[in-house]
Amino acid sequence: MPVILHRALPVIQTLQDEGLDIRFAPHERGAIKLGFLNLMPEKESTERHWLRLLARTGLSIEVHLLKLKQWTPKTTSPQHMERYYEDWDSRIDLDGLMITGAPLGKFDYEQVDYWHELRDIFDNASLDYNSVLYLCWAANAAFHHHYGIPRAQRSHKLSGVYEHRVMRKHPITASIHRDVKFPHSRYAEARQNQLYAHPELRVLVDSRKAGAFAVVDPVRKRLFILGHPEYEADTLHLEFERDKSNGKEPLPPEYYYENDEPGALPSPDWQAHGAATLKNWIEHWVG
Predict the structure, then answer these.
(1) Where does substrate bind (predicted)?
(2) With a threshold of 0.85, does the pTM exceed it?
């Protein structure tokens, strides 16, 4: 079953060339209507990453790309945003919402230009959608906003592909291997001791070295993903090279390069588990 877009997004052809069932079909309707609020600066690569995983779920999903109303990205053309994105409050018929991360780990939330608008989205989301999926920075921001859990800065950027454990049985972790690896990449995170102890939250998937990966609020049907199942094989490598070129002196990504040889990229096996997690979320809470 296809992923359907009502606007002719350029990445559709790229994903079709990979053999994925994703199509521009303005008059078709999906069984699930999903909003995708894209906060990442490089919109087009984020579109490719997450639409790939959604297409690999095998579900009939109608995806609407959403944008903030009071903030204009500097690294994506205004023409792209105008042609392919809708204002976040323009759709009242969506079943679920995904909110991406953003490279803002070194900023206090109140320093973020669109923080007040994002707080409005957080507050409205519980009323407007069956379920919301918060990703990476957005997950940490939601922990802060909804539960008062502060964020801690790390001494070094967390970057690598880490082993995880499924901590408890839940429909969202069904079919996920007991021991699974996922990429992480961040400078800051919700304080882990408060996250694990908070009465409204349940940690489903955890890494000894990277902390929580998947967390749920089962009453409000919120899913929080703190790693990056959408990353391609070279994403961590490109981040590492970018940080070096910017003079940041980063540490190499951990447990990532094959045989610890810089540039020897792994197979992105984590994508299959990311697609399975999305499928479970949609079937269990969104649909």
Answers:
(1) 157, 185, 242
(2) yes
